[in-house]
């Protein structure tokens, strides 16, 4: 019984010491790596949400354009095929842990952006299409989504920069080496790539 009481007392002392040490650990950057990793993953989730929002708009956009420009078959099929390829890639938490899968996903989104740019350019040649209320509504939604994609991508780039930097700078790099040993740099992309690939959605007043 005395031994059991001694063990409980030791456990209580250990818990108390841990509680007292937590503020010190935080001050020494102990929480930096897990906190920044979660922030980066949350930012990535927002990127995926906005890409999905864009993908959801495409079927209605294609059907609307087809109603006024059915003979633009190559451009319309290009958008449909690009969307299909983008949605075929499995998107889950492991995507950030696989640089090749990440690159393939981003390339598919880039191809979809290019296909949308060509579709938008074609729409410029059809005044009746540009004046369509349905098209104008889809145009506004697509423009808003592209803007949100740009913001989400920039937020992700910054979050990953902070996280990856914490893995190689003191004092957090010491925690990465001795405590968070499974922490790995996250993949990213450049703003230059984003600016090059993002479609421009602007038809003035639609007239």
Short summary of the structure?
With 207 residues, the protein is an all-alpha fold. The protein is built from 8 helices and no strands.
Description of the structure:
With 207 residues, the protein is mostly helical. It has one domain (32-184): LemA-like domain (de novo design (two linked rop proteins), Up-down Bundle). Helix content is 76%, strand content 0%. The protein contains 8 helices and no strands. The protein has helices at residues 2-27, 32-68, 73-88, 99-123, 127-131, 133-166, 172-178, 191-197. It is elongated. Mean pLDDT is 85; it is low at 18-22.
Helix/strand order: HHHHHHHH
Largest sheet: none
**How much of the residues is beta strand, in percent?**
under 5%
Number of helices: 8
